[in-house]
Design goal:
Helix content is 26%, strand content 23%. It has helices at residues 38-45, 93-96, 129-132, 142-146, 151-162, 177-188, 201-209, 223-230, 249-256, 300-311, 331-340; strands spanning 2-8, 11-16, 27-34, 55-56, 61-68, 80-83, 124-126, 134-135, 170-173, 194-197, 214-216, 236-241, 257-265, 290-293, 321-326, 347-351. It binds nicotinamide-adenine-dinucleotide and zinc ion.
């Protein structure tokens, strides 16, 4: 079969591979709609998880089941399914401890385009199909549903990590697709003043649609000063980090956070060795300013619950799809858009 792959650090291209085998609990799926992710860019061009050779990329897909193993109960060939980016081993001790995304080792629930071939192939393998796939609900647009693989669950996870409560003042740093979904998630969770930091006009407009009460542009001055001005010098209760680098954003987040506040970071730190935390604004280590960070949870239940938010119209991630391609042959073009980030891009989707 054909697949669009990372050939080595900084190199991508089409390769031929043997089709994967289907174990008794597993499924083979062919992609119907896929989307490249900023994480694919960290992986290929920053070598963030180390070198990989001839590894098929991609972890965001809606697909059709082609084959299931003998022990799979709830899925059959022909079913249309949402495929989460994170597909844990549910029997692992880490999953039993509540951290399924780290099943088998740190980040090891993230299998596609990390430990095995991803979803940009003619076929891909899904482990533990009953626990990791979700049926695509009737009436949910397939392209919008691709955002359930990663963008919705990750943005929402930032909100969970920050533990946003009714009436909280919240700041979301970075409003690419993940940050936009963090804005939507914080609004659903009952944020009061919901500040988003960004500058691209289409992201700014969409952040407002998703519930931001104000969008702050870092070009208008230090965003910490802007937040402190608006909060009478007190800062916000919660910060979600969904963009930026390890050098700047943690400093900004700590500085704009109230004592007792929480930072939820879902950023993939692709380079550098250390994260910077400002000592004094962190209360010399005693400020009760919590930094929670993590990989999104995957699995079927999570997918079904988030799909219900689409089916009921509570959130429409389809609005983020600025570029639609028809045909697998556009895979490289779509991926390079994520790398080059032209001004009008939020998220591309490739329909196959
Ligand atoms: P993106 O690049 O489209 O968006 C990030 C935004 O942050 C951009 O608009 C950028 O201009 C902005 N930004 C950069 N520096 C900033 C700063 N100092 N202040 C404010 N804004 C700043 O990326 P995305 O697709 O939305 O993904 C966001 C991050 O989430 C990426 O690092 C991605 O790899 C990561 N990610 C993590 C998970 C997870 O499970 N934790 C899953 C998917 C993606
Ligand atoms: Zn991703």
């Amino acid at each position: 079969m054909k697949g669009f792959a990372m050939l080595g650090i900084g190199k991508v291209g089409w390769i031929e591979k043997e089709a994967p085998a289907c174990g008794p609990l597993d499924a083979l799926v062919k992609p119907l709609a896929v989307s490249p992710c900023t994480s694919d860019i960290h992986t290929v061009w920053e070598g963030a998880i180390g070198d990989r050779h001839d590894m098929i990329l991609g972890h965001e897909a809606v697909g059709e089941v082609v084959e299931v193993g003998a022990l799979v109960k709830d899925f059959k060939p022909g079913d249309k399914v949402i495929v989460p980016a994170i597909t844990p081993d549910w029997g692992s001790l880490e999953a039993q401890a509540g951290y399924s995304m780290h099943s088998g080792g740190m980040l090891a629930g993230w299998k596609f385009s990390n430990f095995k071939d991803g979803v940009f192939g003619e076929l891909f393998h899904v482990n533990e199909a009953d626990a990791n796939l979700a049926h695509l609900p009737e009436g949910v647009d397939m392209a919008a549903a691709v955002m359930l693989s990663d963008m919705v669950p990750t943005g929402f996870h930032g909100v969970e990590l920050a533990d946003v409560q009714f009436g909280d003042d919240v700041c979301v740093i970075g409003i690419g697709p993940v940050g936009l979904m963090a804005v939507a998630g914080a609004a659903l969770r009952g944020a009061a003043n919901l500040y988003a930091v960004g500058s691209r006009p289409n992201c700014v407009a969409l952040a407002k649609e998703y519930g931001a009460t104000e969008v702050l542009n870092y070009r208008d001055g230090d965003i910490v000063e802007q937040i402190l001005e608006r909060t009478h010098g007190k800062g916000v209760d919660r910060v979600v980090i969904a963009g930026g680098n390890a050098e700047d954003t943690f400093v900004q987040a700590i500085r704009m956070l109230k004592p007792g506040g929480r930072i939820g970071s879902v950023n993939y730190l692709g380079s550098g060795d250390y994260v910077r935390i400002p000592r004094v604004e962190w209360g010399c280590g005693m400020g009760h300013k919590v930094i929670a960070s993590g990989l999104m949870p995957g699995g079927r239940l999570r997918m079904e619950k988030l799909a219900a938010l689409l089916a009921t119209g509570r959130v429409d991630p389809g609005k983020m799809l600025t570029h639609r391609f028809q045909g697998f042959e556009h895979m490289e073009e779509a991926l390079l858009l994520m790398k080059d980030k032209p001004k009008d891009l939020i998220k591309p989707v490739v329909l196959i």
